[in-house]
From TrEMBL:
PROSITE patterns: ABC_TRANSPORTER_2. Its EC number is 7.6.2.2. This is Broad substrate specificity ATP-binding cassette transporter ABCG2. GO terms for biological process: lipid transport. InterPro entries: AAA+_ATPase, ABC2_TM, ABC_transporter-like_ATP-bd, ABCG_dom, ABCG_transporters, P-loop_NTPase. Its main location: membrane. It comes from Poecilia latipinna (sailfin molly). Residues 49-285 form the ABC transporter domain. GO terms for cellular component: apical plasma membrane; mitochondrial membrane. It is a multi-pass membrane protein. GO terms for molecular function: ABC-type xenobiotic transporter activity; ATP binding; ATP hydrolysis activity; efflux transmembrane transporter activity; riboflavin transmembrane transporter activity. The lineage of its organism: Eukaryota, Metazoa, Chordata, Craniata, Vertebrata. Transmembrane segments: none annotated. Keywords: ATP-binding, Cell membrane, Disulfide bond, Glycoprotein, Lipid transport, Membrane, Mitochondrion, Nucleotide-binding, Phosphoprotein, Translocase, Transmembrane, Transmembrane helix, Transport.
Amino acid sequence: MEGAGHINIAMIEDISTNGTSPSKMSPDFNRTRQACGSTVSFHSIQYKVQMRSGFFCRAKPNPKEVLMDLNGIMRPGLNAILGPTGSGKSSFLDILAGRKDPLGLSGDVLVDGAPQPPNFKCLSGYVVQEDVVMGTLTVRQNLSFSAALRLPASVPQSEKEAQVDHLLRELCLTKVADTKLTRGISGGERKRTSIGMELIIDPAVLFLDEPTTGLDASTANSVLLLLKRMASHGRTIIMSIHQPRYSIYRLFDTLTLLVGGRMVYHGPASNALDYFTNIGYPCEPHNNPADFFLDVINGDFMKPTNVHDTELGSTRQNIEERLVEEFKNSSYASDTRAELRRILQTKECISQMRPGNITYNTSFLHQLQWVFQRTFQNLMLTPQTSVAQVGVNVFLALVVGAIFFTVQDDQSGLQNRSEKHEYISGYYRVSVYFLSKILCDLAMRTVTSVIFSVVVYFLIGLKSTVEAFLTFTFTVTLVAYTATAMTMAISANQSVVALANIFMTITFVFMMSLHVDPCLQIFSGLLVNLPSIVDWLAWLKYFSIPRYGFALKINEFVGLNFCEEPPTQKANMSATTAGCGVSAAGQM
């Protein structure tokens, strides 16, 4: 482990963001109880993904090896995983954290000699590459949200608040504790907030996926100094990183180098340069070790000998294989294998990890309360979204109302009414997130639907009865609810936005093709009357959202007279008006 001199280096932070140097860091941090870090060992890790090559039905499965035969140990301290882009760093980190799909995964990951529990991801901390803090909330509110959901319900609220205050001091965030993350927060403070949300549960193991990405050099250095300080107090920190500068590299306790999903070094970071020198790759005195390792891995290292181009090309093609073989035959690999065998001997048997039920620290209702509160608060603190939705609905209502302004109760008004009523508009359980999301969204849909109905109904001059107006508003609101639910269902099933848009378009076109208008039925580009559709396809009409919204014409047509003669006869939904030749009967 690095000496104390590396830990006490002054932390640099932008003065304009009220940063605090480590020298001013709260003494509570040094008095914090020593965190008991865990030892994470990985045995024969293999990971492959199924790729498909070819077109459509002729596509053939083509498995791709992402990680191959990885063995090693991550002990308490600052453990870095280094490698070029596409080397499998993030996939390897996800596997160690228990966050990878077990499909295509083989091998074992042990924590203190035992298999990972099903809820290991709830017991450990994981800081993703892109900060996922809620920008409309303050630093304190984000930490309080994490404390409310991740700490046991038996912990008093006063202790949770004390834990939040302690973390604010520990992470040098006191001066910006009540500042929203959308303004007045530097990149380093935002990253430390993300780290703080994971430290709420005081995890024995903390994973970080490229924590310096998107940060300037001084800010990245300050974040790594914080991690080094935590690691020196006994916590196990495992992180992936791409190309750190020397001031960051020298903080690492252990270093794991990956290339093409295979390991070319795993051992003390302070011994890595000597290892590469011994296998024929000496580093220049003033070269950054991290840059040097990547140059060697990528085949860009130039030995101090004259070689022909063909020899150089051959060397670049075989450099990866040579590095892998050199490490397999090294003393570091043999010592690691011996230690792994000792760990396995402490276990009677090692079984394949199987998914189990995750136990949450808080109840369903407690989670729902906090997630709904945050979602609603975020909605209220983002007025541009709400105003935009209301504005769009008012604009559309005015356009529709102007087009059908004071529609007449004659034969020319019949076709207008039959088309003007169309309105088509994912720390907790998935069900909690969904319910919170849908409840807040329904509130907005209700407001916009009511506004739309009020403007359109009275601007057009539809039936002036309370019952008819309430029926109109209720139907428009239900159509908006259903359309929103359908779009959520489609988008939740697709990870590619383009595919979701395509499926959304196809679905809406399909439903419009099942329109209930007996005069203007669109199906495969032809005008088709709904009753004329063959029986084995007729059931599809029940899946059309616009079909139910189109039932508003029943609400509007009943009791209206569209014919001047004879005056005693009125159009209704069950009879054809004499002398008019227009049927008001709707096929549902």
